[in-house]
Write a structure and sequence with these properties.
Strand content: 25-35%
Number of strands: 11
Structural class: alpha+beta
Number of domains: 2
Order of helices and strands: HHEEEEEEEEEHEE
Shape: rod-shaped
Largest sheet: 5 strands, antiparallel
Helix content: 25-40%
CATH topology of the largest domain: Jelly Rolls
């Protein structure tokens, strides 16, 4: 509705025209108030959306931190000297005292102890859960006393679970041969999933054997990475 102005009409307004002008203005105020109310409601809604998005961002940050805490690695460097493989086709335990300068235990999973026990040179999985995975990298050197020698690396799991000092099962993780005698460098990588309670609750050991006599092994270090489900 259009407001009737006296200057445009050229004469005094009638009572009806004055009332009509006030009614028009009153209607405009109500419409504007409704519009302001709607805008305020939109602002409140947007503020709620921002709050929800902020909550989601915080939740995602927590998830990222949680994911980070489910992954960890350690380096265990040895200074223990040579291990003599005096008898052919016999597995000898690899030892690692963790006293090397490159040892770094600060990046393991915060809620778990170190998987490698430097006192016993054994693997201890009892802080893990069934389904967790452990990845290994073994760095060691071998001095072969004879040419045409085969070397095997075997990991024993669940030692003592059924019979004292006897593993529940063993896994050959590497099988290598070398034609010439002398110093050989080895990097063995493998991973294992914690399959059952016996594998988790009883220790494991890393062993090597040669089909020749009087070879020697020098452990340089292990990198052990833990993946928590």
């Amino acid at each position: 509705m259009t407001i009737t102005l006296r200057a445009i009409k050229g004469s005094e307004l009638t009572h009806v025209e004055v009332d009509a002008n006030f009614s028009d203005l009153d209607g405009r105020v109500i419409v504007n108030i409704d519009g302001i109310a709607n805008n305020v409601a939109d602002i409140v809604t947007n503020a709620s959306s921002i709050a929800n998005n902020t909550t989601n961002i915080i939740s995602n940050d927590v998830d990222i931190v949680s994911l980070h805490e489910r992954f960890g690695w350690i380096i265990v460097a040895d200074t223990g000297g040579d291990i003599n493989l005096t008898v052919a086709d016999t597995f000898y335990k690899l030892t690692n005292n963790g006293a090397g300068a490159q040892t770094d235990l600060t990046h393991g999973v915060a809620t778990h102890k170190s998987i490698w026990n430097t006192s016993t040179s054994q693997l201890e999985f009892d802080d893990l859960a069934i389904g967790d995975r452990v990845q290994f990298r073994l760095n060691f050197s071998v001095v072969a006393s004879n040419p045409n020698v085969e070397l095997m690396t075997k990991v024993n799991f669940g030692i003592g679970a059924i019979t004292p000092s006897v593993p529940l099962f063993s896994l050959i993780v590497d099988h290598m041969s070398y034609k010439a005698a002398g110093l050989k460098q080895f990097n063995v990588e493998f991973s294992a999933v914690i399959q059952n309670a016996s594998m988790r609750d009883f220790p494991g050991e890393i062993t090597v054997s040669s089909d020749a006599t009087n070879d020697t092994v020098n452990v340089e270090g292990f990198v052990i990475t833990t993946f928590i489900r």
